[in-house]
Amino acid sequence: MTRPGDILLSVKEISLRFGGVRALTDVSFDIHEGEIFAIIGPNGAGKSSMLNCINGFYHPQEGTITFKGAERRQMRPHEAAAQGISRTFQNIALFKGMTTLENVMTGRMLKMRATLAEQALYFWRGRREEIEHREKVEEVIDFLEIQSIRKTPVGRLPYGLQKRVELARALAAEPELLLLDEPMAGMNVEEKEDMCRFVLSTNHELGTTIALIEHDMGVVMDLSDRVVVLDYGKKLAEGTPDEVRGNQDVIDAYLGVSHD
Amino acid sequence: MAGALPDVAQHDTFPKLLRYNAEHRASVAAVREKDLGIWQTWTWADFRDAVRKLAGGMKALGLKRGEKVAIVGDNRPRLYFAMSAAQSLGAIPVPVYQDAVADEMRFVLDHAEAAFIVAEDQEQVDKVLSQKEHLPALRTIIYDDARGMRDYSESFLHAYDDVVGMGREGGWDEEVDLGKGGDTAIILYTSGTTGTPKGVVLSYDNLLLCAKIGADFEHLREDEVVLAYLPMAWVGDNVLSYCQAHLVGFSFACPESPETVPHDLRELGPTYFFAPPRVFENLLTQVTIRMEDAAPLKQRVFRFFMNVAERAGADILEGRKVGLANRFLYRMGEVLVYGPLKNVLGLSRLRVGYTAGEAIGPEIFRFFRSLGINLKQLYGQTEASVFVTIQTNDDVRPDSVGPPAPGVELRITEEGEVLYRSPGVFQEYYKNSEATAETKTGDGWVHTGDAGVIDDDGHLRIIDRAKDVGRLANGTLFAPKYLENKLKFYPNIREAVTFGHERDFVTAMINIDMEAVGNWAERRNIAYSSYQELAARPEVLDIVEGHVSEFNAGLAADPQFAGSQIHRFIVLHKMLDADDGELTRTQKVRRRFISERYAPAIDALYGGEGSIVLETPVTFEDGRSGTITGDLAIRDARISGAGGERAAA
Questions:
Q1: What are phi and psi of B235, to 5 degrees?
Q2: Where residue A229 sits, what CATH number does that domain have?
């Protein structure tokens, strides 16, 4: 049940090498506006590398990435962020000593225009911006139901909540495309259910397009509109969860035959 | 300020009082709520306007006088507005416990024949929709929070914001004027310690007279600050927040979310506050844990001044004579320890604090009073519109619930059951005349179902549920709740259930307190991954055994209870939970249910085995169910003094 949205991001014939190791070979797919798109595959298939290419952390040797109609070869992460791509990380990358609120505020940094002095003195533009951005951040906090940990240093929070704070920070940047690298990894059933609910409501209520990597097949099949399967850096299949589930190559490579 | 209360003979319903307040205190705060991190305020005029608009919409949707409007959700201003809007149209609000699962909710919604339901959010709407086919009377559902509701196409579902726009503004005053003091104001379903819930029908007169008795007794003022955080379906929230606010004109605040209550409490600094004993227990447990983690110097200062407070605090609070040295030290303690501590707990400005519902541990009670916090016990019931007895400011004892409140008469039957008669006595149980006749006598006395004694100076002491009081095989009095409450006074023990009726000796099943014991385990590097694992550690069992032995020694000193010492006990592998039917929604133990479900454990306690494998069903938060199996050790506790002789074990 592909949604009839325009193409938001188009990946064409991407190849990425680290020395002699081919991490990605000739991978192409499109992500449409408003969909939840999953990238799956066994360990080492190149899923995180793909995400890192999309948000500009890795620079593929071949191929192009087109975002919102603009083609680009090389782009740095902060430029990707400024254009509307946010992400979360497989291993949580928060400022552990800072509170939830402060961490989520950092998601707004790219949108702040005030000078250092204005911010430090909390004056003129600095003050106005702080209030504006805080309001946006509070909406995100309300959306993800983390009011009770607003002032808690994130290092003291349980893992599942830290993941949620990371999602909050990504959402605070009001992204058009949200990249989630294993959002459910290491979570218990209840935390997973919560996270699924938040991913879905982000997509539904905020209309954010989401690309995610996930190992929990139940989660992937339930959440995603479309799935791409990678194996050894190559695209194996692409389609709706049902189509992918029925694909013999996928069953052999990923769901059935073991690589060990 | 007591003289400034409006005349309840003239303003004899809450909508009339709302109108009075909107005219006389138009710009005074009535309701607050923290939204997006900032406290928002509705004045009494705003309150009236919101209610008027909503009532207009509800009338346009076809709500008629006498119909029931169920209200399902956490404490939210808009749900209180809905309560008021229903009342102003002559409809009857029926607040429902918001954490009830769909099945439980169905009973109340169906029994009350709710025509309208005002629900907080998608979660509650989903619950109602899942039961819709069993609710023939239901015509309309209104929801407050529109999040997630976009794809719902049912024609009987309406967003609050849309409803507000539907009605005409006029006609509200005329509707309000039709209300009378004798009308039914609300139906509150009791959580049902026994059997199915019963709908307690309360009139405006019941609630207003009771609210007034309380307000006069405590000299409540317009500037009180109240946090409305206990379930709206509970009579205490209704009377102490909604009713008394209408009568006295003070404001009540809704917390940001149930999890933020401690923060909200601290930010607001309520002056008038109710909490069940559990909340105070938790506060004390937290303080204890944090002090154990504090630096040695801080610990010493804390201990020193807590000793001072224990000597002098309660006397100073109750206005008795205290020596100069202690008075000086207490003043210092206020600066160094008590003041900051009260501030952290959000209790700095508290004038009147109530606790009720269960017995509170004497140490916990004394702890808060010694800090200078005016915490008092009351004894109340839904059927009484709360107040039966209240402790007076100058005579507070940990083991009694005080003398009868003004206007209340008390009596004890030969079997020891407490009876009362007051202006707050309920009209009837809705559609249950049999239960009404059992509970309320022809001349207005109400059977509480509690066993109690009245002291020589008129203070009531509650021992147990009348039907739970039993006898050991040798005829000794067995009061399970009395024993359990005493056990629960140990911070490490969260819940306890005792057995002994028609048995040779008393045994107990115990839940440890995950927070307190977990902290203890952490400091000793004892690894555990779940409640079950922690509860099965031999070190933990040793602690509990120590507590039980000490508890036995305490009982031995009381001739009435010396025979009730606990001989054997078991620490359960799961927490007793309302979702599993083991506790009521108000966290009271369901004794009969537990003794059936845990029958093998009870047999083992009396059979002399050293351990037992126990399989128990559990319900997860999403409604699915499974089982938990555990191999539980049964321990013997030390028996003190005269209670020692016991049959073969």
A1: -60, -35
A2: 3.40.50.300
- Token look-up 């890192």 returns A52
This model of the complex carries an ipTM of: 0.79
Any chain B CB within 8 A of the CB of A34? no
**What is the distance, to the nearest Å, from the Cα of residue A221 to the centroid of all Cα atoms in its chain?**
17
The residue range of the domain holding A165 is 96-174
Percent above pLDDT 70 for chain A: 95
Query: Distance, in angstroms, between A141 CA and closest chain B CA?
Result: 8
**Partner-chain residue, chosen from A145, A190, A204, that has the shortest CB–CB distance to B621:** A190
Which of B147, B257, B620 shows the shortest C-beta gap to A205? B147
Contacts of residue A193 in chain B, CB cutoff 8 Å?
622
Sheet with A226-231, edge to edge strand ranges: A85-88, A177-181, A209-213, A36-40, A226-231, A234-239
User: pLDDT tens digit string along A153-211?
Assistant: 999 999 889 999 999 999 999 999 999 999 988 888 888 999 999 999 999 989 999 99
Q: Which residues pair with B137 in a beta bridge?
A: none
Q: List domains and CATH numbers for chain B.
A: 2-274 (3.40.50.12780), 470-644 (3.30.300.30)
Contact flag B622-A193 (C-beta cutoff 8 Å): yes
Query: Given the DSSP bridges, would you call strands A85-88 and A177-181 parallel, antiparallel or unpaired?
Result: parallel
- Based on the number of CB atoms within 10 Å of its own CB, is B159 exposed (0-12), middle (13-18) or buried (19 or more)? middle
Residue A223 CB neighbours (<10 A):
23
- Whether residues A78 and A21 fall in one domain: yes
Note whether A30 and A20 are same-domain residues: yes
Give the integer Cα–Cα distance in Å for A218 and A225: 13
pLDDT in tens, B150-192: 889 999 999 999 999 998 767 999 999 999 999 999 999 986 6
Are B295 and B374 a contacting pair, CB within 8 Å? no
| Domain end among A140, A174, A208 | A174
